[in-house]
Amino acid sequence: MYNPMNIIVPIKQVPETGNVKIDEEKGTIVREGVESIINPLDLYAIEIALQLKEEHGGSVKVISMGPKNAEKAIREAISMGCDDGFLVSDRAFAGSDTWATSYALSKAIEKIGQFDLVITGVRATDGDTGQVGPGISAFLDLPLATYTSGIKEIKNGHIIIERLTEEGYETLKLPIPCLLTVVKEISYPRLPTLRGKQNARSKEIPVWGPDDMGVDRSLVGLDGSPVRVVKITRPKVTRNGKIFDTNKGIGTKDAVIELMKFLKEKELI
Amino acid sequence: MSEVWTLAEQHKGQLKSISFELLARGRKLADNLNEKLSSVILGSNINNESLQELILRGADKVYLVEDPTLEHFLVEPYSNIVEYLINKYHPDILIAGATTLGRTLMPYVAIKVNTGLTADCTELEIEELTGNLLQIRPAIGGNILATIKTPKHRPQMATVRPKSIAIPERIEGRQGEILKIDVPSELLKSRTEILGARNAVDEAMGLEDADKIVAGGRGLKKSDNFNLIKELAELLSAAVGASRETVDRGWISYPHQVGLTGKTVSPKLYMAIGISGAIQHLAGMKTSENIVAINNDPDAQIFQVADFGIVGDLFEIVPAIIEELRKRKDS
User: Fold this and answer.
1) B194 found inside a domain
2) In chain A, which residues have their Cβ closer than 8 Å to the Cβ of B160?
3) How far is residue A71 from each of residues A10, A47, A230, measured CA to CA in Å?
4) Across the interface, do B107 and A138 touch by the CB < 8 Å criterion?
């Protein structure tokens, strides 16, 4: 049955971890001069969206909010097979927290118009909040399933999914349109194709500011954000533990005895 | 008078341990602010003893909302009700577990009641001069600790990592009130339906709750060698964890993955075997209480975060540990 799925995938451009600089004053991430990638967990959202499009027909559109160079992430998504991309970018958005980001992205989704599904990664590897997916669903009043690990069926205006919980898996039936946040288990992301890359190069990526989307400027950016970072510290990693090197004098057996002592002392055995 | 609220969680009518952990956080905040501490619980047929247990372990009040439709968590009715309670009682602070429920419900509610939310906090404090809640959380793969506050919006909302604090002692005879709240029936409506739930047999499901974890990495060389990890884990009554690489190679399933794109764990014992300790892996486990590392590379980064380490061939060391533990079990 022809049951086209028009899907919107909000993605985030994140810095390669291990290479992060912080603006100590503003408490925000310095993105200039840092290698950026698509949030690795968003790749699973893109992949499952593309699979659904291949199976049912329809389209996959990506949106991202960030600085101008976040266009790179959008082009990368198009090179994987997404049809179109939109960039939400303006000085007014700088410093937005998850509330303000959810608001701006929900306005962008409204501007794109008719859709069946919004699919996001479960969280971004930099901010690590996992709040923007549920936040968008709350702004748009969409039914929501988080931690989605599999899609079982799409039929008669409904989608049946499985989601991960602490106890195991839950099966939910949601009406379409709805929003899903997906975990890694759902798919394995494909690589960009040559045709996709060509498409990505020539594609025009519209850039939207607050006025293009009817966004109230007082509700975005640092001033529109309910939460504020007041301090950043760098925790120390090194624990200076006891290390026994079996290549340097101590035998395996003695090292294991030392381990037993350690475990016993810490009441772990 | 304003209150500090914790969101208790139940499974089949029994309270989950996060409900009590939150009381330890909440009690400290409420005492500091000289406010009452209340727990909110939604569900069906909730065991009365466990409600009393909330009071014995620190709650002054329990707001109880019961209905057969609330047996399972569904975002819409749960958020409708929490929103209703917030608008009715105006709590100063609302904290919940950074569980699959908390991390779904809280961001949804925060938008609906127009306030801020900080995810996955490891510490909560009260700012002396203002009485504001200071929400401290690791970010960017654990590379930084950020202190965050919600200066103008109320309630101040945060989720807290499970297992990050001990359950408070029970105080026999401690008094408090249980308030049964009736909510308008239209709040119970849900467009989403739950068709079923299955407890996964996969032992990795409880990974985040495990006291001990034995985790394997690329050093195991092949899929079959995970049996060594499993054997050791069983002897230690530990759960099995894994690095991303082993999951990507299909040696073990994704629910076992610890790290930036997997689970964040904080057990009493984390034993990393054949794991080099890439920053992405460390992000998921470096807050563990005790870290033991076994790796053949003395320069492996995992040794930097280890409390105890053995440099050497894991295929000699792990069987020796297994043998030693067996001996101790038998004697």
Assistant:
1) no
2) none
3) 13, 19, 30
4) yes
User: A141 near A253, Cβ under 8 Å?
Assistant: no
Tokens of A165: 């919980």
* Sheet (strand B290-295) strand order: A242-245, B308-311, B290-295, B269-273, B212-216, B239-242
CATH code (residue B151): 3.40.50.620
- Whole-number Å distance between alpha carbons of B180 and B42: 10
Q: Is residue B99 part of a domain?
A: yes
The verdict on B242 and B274 lying in the same domain is yes
A13 and A72 in contact (C-beta within 8 Å)?
yes
Tokens coding B278: 């890439």
Residues of B in contact with A97 (CB under 8 A): 116
B184 with B224, same domain?
Answer: no
- In angstroms, the first-to-last Cα distance of chain A is 59
- Residue B219 within a domain: yes
What φ, ψ does residue A218 adopt, rounded to 5°?
A: -75, -10
Environment class of B119 (CB within 10 Å of its CB; exposed 0-12, middle 13-18, buried 19+)? buried
Give the end of a domain, one of B134, B160, B188: B188
Q: Distance, in angstroms, between B132 CA and closest chain A CA?
A: 11
pTM: 0.87
Do B285 and B313 fall into the same domain? yes
The Cα–Cα gap between A6 and A118 comes to: 9
Residue B298, domain extent: 203-330
* Same domain, residue pair B182 and B210: no
* Count of positions (residues) in chain A: 269
Instruction: Give the list of residues 6+ apart from residue B34 with CB closer than 8 angstroms, or none.
Output: none
Same domain, B171 and B238: no
Number of domains in chain B: 2
Same domain, B182 and B207: no
Task: Flag whether B197 is in a domain.
Answer: no
Which two three-digit tokens encode residue B322? 């297994």
- Mind listing the pLDDT tens digit of every residue in chain B (331 residues)? 799 999 999 998 999 999 999 999 999 999 999 999 999 999 999 989 999 999 999 999 999 999 999 999 999 999 999 999 999 999 999 999 999 999 999 999 999 999 999 999 989 999 999 999 999 998 776 677 899 999 999 999 999 988 778 899 999 999 999 999 999 999 999 999 999 998 875 566 678 888 999 999 999 999 999 999 999 999 999 999 999 889 888 899 888 999 877 888 889 999 999 999 987 798 889 889 999 999 999 999 999 999 999 999 999 999 999 999 999 988 7
Query: Do B180 and B229 belong to one domain?
Result: no
Contact B117 A227 (CB under 8 A): yes
Q: Testing the interface with A: which of B9, B71, B108, B234 to mutate, by most A Cβ within 10 A?
A: B108
Residue where a domain terminates, one of B154, B188, B222 = B188
CB neighbour list of residue A191: distance below 8 Å, 6 or more residues apart: A80
Q: Are residues B113 and B141 in the same domain?
A: yes
Q: Please, are residues B160 and B97 in contact by the beta-carbon 8 Å criterion? A: yes
